[in-house]
Every structure is written in structure tokens, then in C-alpha cells.
Amino acid sequence: MNNFDFYNPVKILFGEGKTEAIAQEIPANAKVMITFGGGSIKQNGVYEQVTKVLKGFKVVEFGGIEPNPKFETLMKAVELARNEKVDFLLAVGGGSVIDGTKFIAAAIPFNGDTWKIIKGGKEGVIEKAVPFGVVLTLPATGSEMNSGAVISRISTGEKFAFGSPLVYPKFSVLDPTFTYSLPRHQVANGIVDAFIHVTEQYLTFPANAPIQDRWAEGILQTLIEIGPKAIENPTDYETRAAFMWACTMALNGIISTGVPTDWATHMIGHELTAFFGLDHAVTLAIVLPSLLLETSDEKKLKLLQYGERVWGILNGTEDERVSMAISKTHDFFHSLGIKTHLSDYGVTEDQIKPIVDRFAQRGWKLGENKSITAERIETILKGSL
Amino acid sequence: MNNFDFYNPVKILFGEGKTEAIAQEIPANAKVMITFGGGSIKQNGVYEQVTKVLKGFKVVEFGGIEPNPKFETLMKAVELARNEKVDFLLAVGGGSVIDGTKFIAAAIPFNGDTWKIIKGGKEGVIEKAVPFGVVLTLPATGSEMNSGAVISRISTGEKFAFGSPLVYPKFSVLDPTFTYSLPRHQVANGIVDAFIHVTEQYLTFPANAPIQDRWAEGILQTLIEIGPKAIENPTDYETRAAFMWACTMALNGIISTGVPTDWATHMIGHELTAFFGLDHAVTLAIVLPSLLLETSDEKKLKLLQYGERVWGILNGTEDERVSMAISKTHDFFHSLGIKTHLSDYGVTEDQIKPIVDRFAQRGWKLGENKSITAERIETILKGSL
Fold it and tell me: Is the ipTM reported for this complex over the cut 0.85?
């Protein structure tokens, strides 16, 4: 096991009706800015519940945070919050709203060019942030219990991740009933997103971390068991509760303690979103099976363990078992209604070149072994066609 | 899944050499009181490492915190800390030192009779505590990552648990090399303690909590795999690291989120310590198998799941599988060198009566179903003879 630090102070308020508890979690006399996305919370009753609980607080609202939240949009929220002297934020939504709110929280008290917070480097280090809470409506990204965010900028076509212990949510409400009105494909995306968050932290090489392995496998097994049910039965509370908790546990830092991580599927997937506008989770489902095939020698020991413990694959040669584990993974995504080939989305072989070129220019080497070069990314993407 | 709150802000610093990092975690200019036990840290090099790192801080020491830490001893530490105007505590030791330090931290700023903090009730509610950190030397209780403590009082023969979010450690150093010098039986006790912390939160009734189940099973499987190795090979870093992490994860609140818990084995075990002076972990190993047998109808579904997933028991009638799961548990404790019968410790049938009488007087009903009466405790203890 590698040395590590682990720190996660987010207070989770889990279960139906827990929104009521937030009034005690927000400082008395706070001026609260509610941040949200496209307005679905005004249709499904969540907005009503939240505003009811916030009676007694001064409240302003900022709606319209888009998927893959944009710096330009978020800076409007920062301006509003500064003008209104907001001192607490409440993100009501999914990963994009939460990520966006993390940036807003960091940017409000920041002196100077706020893009530096995202771009990184010494000048972008934040020393304070406005405290904020979360009411989660879309289980997927895990942002409700971590301190990271991914922000895009339209004007420059850039997309970066930033993180700081100062942008852990103070609390996150996880009410499974808030997921009942989600469209089918968003639930499927959430399951795949959480699944691949886990594989990025687990399908690497053995690191003498038996608890972390078992816990990663436990999340994968759970997602496999409940995934189809979560999609078919939107109001099955228990299934949605397990789905919600699985997504949060998948990326709160606990399963990556002391182990190597990969994240190549995410890095390649981000480019597929940038080039073709594909949903984040869809890009992951496209990349992962082909990436596992390409890296199956490096990942062999963990793929065999994964096949055995998660899929019950006990028979066959090592190569056959590895191959079967990858097929099972691919078939699972399919069973959720997610198509896993680039050609399913009209992407053709000649469209791969510009992506590969971008990686080649950057000179990045991805994966837990820093072995995934542009050349291998080409192989992976061709394998995903 | 039941509704729940989860909050655990302890910063974990894990791995060889991590003691060095504590200088950055303690406020500059703090006056630090090091608390410790019988002095083993002065033999094994831990004390030396800690004091080296604390150069630059004003330091006082309080040694001699005993197993099952005593109110009377701890109040001497409180007096010293008040006189010396200590503003940070550093517990260096195992569960007893950490539990004791939690009380010291709460008692220093408390006005009035400090026993009330432990005894509970409105007058004992604490509103502040001196911040403290931990350097763990004995993996077992999980106290390094939770906010609970058990304190005894000699003068009255009382023993109570107390807890408050104010007594979470600010940080805990988990350096597996600090366990190398532990006596064999303390390692065995630690494994059993962690194992039974998990069963108390897992072997109840199904609660639609698949992640919590899998994570509990993951800790049990890990303890079974590494337990004998951890005892036989004291300086096997990787095994000791897994052992240490397993103990911490077993009682930091994460696996009990949203599920029923039992804790009857602990309640009965505490009396065996009180009456016969047996080690805490030993009492748990004595009580658990007999308790599982007595409650096997209520616990049947989880016992079958435990048998299948943790021990691989797939064949036989339900009753046979339950019985085999209990035998395997019992045999595991034996394999660690822990004797699991009261008679192994010279306790005879007539000595059981006073314990049962005490439970009868209290009128307590224990367990996840509040179904374990004094009468059933008698059956359980007779079954442990």
C-alpha cells in the first residue's frame, strides 16, 4: 500500500425528507444563493421543498448552469453573489451544478483573474471559499462528496479540473426520491459514470490494498445488481437509494487510498465530448472496453481478479478469462441501453486522427504506468469504432 | 436503507514516516500535551520520533493512561493541562489512550463536574473541546477515526461510553511500522476486535444496503486473509498496513450508514471484563459464536449471506449452512490463538448467575431487535462455557 492522506469532512444527510435538515446546517442570518441548472427542479418539486426550508433566510437565485459548466456563465453568478453579499451557496442539482458552485465559492472572495483558479499554478491557489451545501438530484459524478470540479471555457475551448480542500461541500442532501423524475438515459449514464470511476481506481496493478480492492469490487457488484432495476423502476426507493449511495462512494476518495489510479478512459473520453458532443458517461462506455483490451497485459492480474470476484469467471485460460471479463463489462453497458461503439454515434475512422494528433502534440502519457501514448490511443479509438 | 447522517472529518496520515507530517497539522505556537500509556512508546522508538517532530512546540507529557482508561487517572491529566494552559493534545497509543484523550479534550474547558460528560444527560453536553491528534500504535478499536470513547470510574465501578462530534481527532497518523513491536496476543486481539466491530454492524437483518453489506464483508474477508500472517510476520509491512486500515475502516461509521446494528456481544462482553478481568477482544470472541447460535433464527438471512460470501459456504440445508458459518467464525478466532470458552479462563457455570442478574435488574433488551433479554443472555453465556 502506498502512503496516503485521506480527509473528507462532507456531512451526508441521506434519505427521504432530509432536505428539512438543511436549515440547521446553514449559519443563521446567512444570505443564501441557490444555484441550479436548466430548471427541472422547478418541475419535480425539489425547488419547492428547498425554498420552503429556506424561509427565514435571505435568498437569491442563480439558474442556468449548463452541463459541462462554463466559466462565462459561472462568472455571472460570481458577480451576482458579490453584489448581493451572499455568504452561503446551495447547489441544487447534479455534478455540473455542484462543480460550478465549487468554482463560484472559490471565485467570490478571490482577488484577480478568477480563471487562474481553474488553470492552476501558484497564482491560482485559493486561500478561502464561501461555504456551500448541496441538494443532489442526479447521482453520477460523486461531486457531492469530493473537493474537485471540472470547468470549461467557451472563449478558449479549454476544459480543466481544479480542486481544493476548501471546496468540500459543508453538507450534501441525498434524497433518493429526488431521482424519480430523471430521464432513463440519465440514470443509465449515472450508473456507467460511477462504474468507470471505480474501474479507474481499481483496474490497474495489484498494490497490496485488500480493503480498497474489496470495496471497489463491492461498488461494481452493486451497480451490476441494481443497475437494470434502477432504470426500469424509477420509484423503487430502495434501488434508487443504493444507486445514489454507490455513486457517492465511488468517488469520495476512500477507494483510491494507497493505490495507483488510471484515469486514461476519462482523459480520452473528455476529447470525445469535446469533438463530438457525446455525453460524458457515453464516452467512458465507448473507451473503456477497448482500453482494457489494449492494456490487458499490464492490467492482467487485476483483470483476472475482477473477472473472478465481480463476474464469477473461474474457468478458462488466463487470456480467455481476461477476454470474458472485458466482454461482460461491455455487455453490461449495453444492457443499460448505452451503445458502446463510436460508429453508433456516426463517428468514422477518419475523425479519430485529429484526436490522436492532439494527444501527440501534448506528449501526454496516460494510465497508471504512464504507458498510454498517442499511438496506443489511436489503437484504442480504432478498437472502439 | 434507513435515513442517516454521516460525518467524519478525521484527516488520516497513512504510512511509514508519516509522523513527520504532524508538525504542519498542529497550530503554530500551540502548547502540546502528549498523552500515552504504560511507556512502551519509549522502548519502541515511537516516542523518539514524536518528540523529534515536536521540536519547536512547547510540550508537556502525561503518561500512565491504563487499559480501560479511568476517570480518576484522566482527571490528573486534565488538571495538568489546565495548569499548563495546554491548547493541543497528542494521543500516542492505542484505543485506551485515544479514548482517554477524548475525555481529557472535552473535560479541560468544561465547567462543573466532569463526570457528567461521561454519565450523559443534558448537563453533560459539551460545547467545546481542546483539539487533538493521534499517533496510533495498536490497531483494534477504531477510536483513531471516530468520535466515541469508553471511560471507567474506579470509585463507583461504572463504565460508560460517550461521544461528540467535537472529539473527532483532527488527524491520525497510521504508521504500520509502529505495530512491529506489539506482543502477539495484542495483534490477535486487534483482529478479533475489528472483526466483531464489523459483525455488530452487519450480522443483523437485511436492510437493502448492498454497498454497506459488501464493504462489511470486504473487511471480514480481509481480516480472515491477513490475520494469521499479521500475527506470524510482525515486520511484514504490507500485511500490517492492511491490518491497520481494516481496523480503522471497521468502526469509522461508514459501514453502519442506514443499517440496523446489534452491539449485544459488546454489552455482554463488557460484563465479562468487569467480572473476570478478561481482555475486551477475548470477551467478544467468547460471546459471539454462542450469541449467533441463540439468535440464528432472527439473523438467518444475514448468516446465510455471511456464510456464502465470506466463507464460501454454498452447500447444505439452511440450518447446516448457518451452523457451518458459526463454526468457521469460532475456528477463526481459535486459529489466532484466542480461546473462546469461558471454561478456558476458569469461569464456571455458577459464576454466570450474577451477570445475568445484573442484566435482569437493568431490564435491558439487547440486539437489533431488542429481543435479547436476561434469560437469553443466560443461554448465551451457558453456551459459551
Answer: yes
